[in-house]
Amino acid sequence: MRLADAILDDCLCDPAAPLARDPARCYGLDKAQAQAQLASLKEWLRVQQAMLWANRRDALLLVLQGPDCSGKNGVIRRVLGGLDPLGLSPHSFQAPSEEERRHDFLWRYRERLPVPGMLGVFNRSYYEALVSDLRDGLCSPADIPQRQSAILAFERELPAASIQPLKCYLQLSAGEQKQRLHRRLEQPEKRWKLTLGDLQDHRNFAQQQAQWAAVLSKSHSREAPWYVIPADHRWLRDLLVASLLARAFERLALDWPARPAPFTHADLDSTP
């Protein structure tokens, strides 16, 4: 049902060259095939999410990073749409508020970690503290090594809290980003979200990708690996993330809780 391990493992980050692969590669799949496979897989994910909630033993944390237009919101809609919202804990992170800046930079992320039974989603994450915060003047270059160490320590704490991270970087080409920005300019339902910062970020695309490549290289580990997802094709991006999520569920080996019923048929039938 999900994609084969060989394809998923091919997306594992190469710390020596994290963003060297072609973001338009498609593994021999086509759009119709991928969309049909995703539709079947989503039903299986729905059952797994329900069992995750029923057991309240583990939590999953899907971390989505990527440049503007890479499809972080799209993954949430297309892959997680149809799951039980009561078992989802999605959070989108923009620049920290004044209150958040009064705390340690990891505070707002710790506050939003999923509790056992939940599927948490971070649309952008604590890794923004190494790139966006530096760009926006919220930290200095001298702060980055300490922040990198703090993030690695933070991720090492997650398994002890029964939280299994799944980190996906959605890799987009500059050409595809430009096309998607053009389409957003033409669509009123998306145009309102554009800012001058989006234009500046596109102009600085190569520089920003170099920064993210350095971040991925230094934060890829066996315990919390990065998967670099080719995102030029939306249909492949969605199926890859769904398949990685399915493999994370498989590793939890979930089943329905074997709990005795709180009452019997006789108890129920004795009720007027």
Mean of residue pLDDT? Answer: 96
Task: Outline the biggest β-sheet.
Answer: 5 strands, parallel
Approximate shape: globular
- Report the β-strand fraction as a percent range: 5-15%
* Total count of domains: 1
Distance, first to last CA: 47 Å
* Number of separate helices: 13
Protein name: Polyphosphate kinase-2-related domain-containing protein
Keywords: Kinase, Transferase
GO molecular function: polyphosphate kinase activity
Pfam family, one: PPK2
Describe this structure in words.
The protein has 272 residues and is an alpha/beta fold. The protein has one domain (5-253): P-loop containing nucleotide triphosphate hydrolases (Rossmann fold, 3-Layer(aba) Sandwich), CATH 3.40.50.300. The chain has 13 helices and five strands. The chain has helices at 5-10, 31-55, 72-80, 98-101, 107-110, 128-135, 144-157, 174-186, 188-191, 196-203, 205-219, 234-252, 265-269; strands spanning 59-65, 88-92, 119-123, 163-171, 226-230. Strands 2-3-1-4-5 form a five-stranded parallel β-sheet, with helices on one face. Helix 2 (31-55) packs parallel to helix 12 and helix 3 crosses helix 12 (234-252). The chain is globular, with a radius of gyration of 20 Å. 28% of the residues are buried. The model has no long low-confidence stretch (mean pLDDT 96).
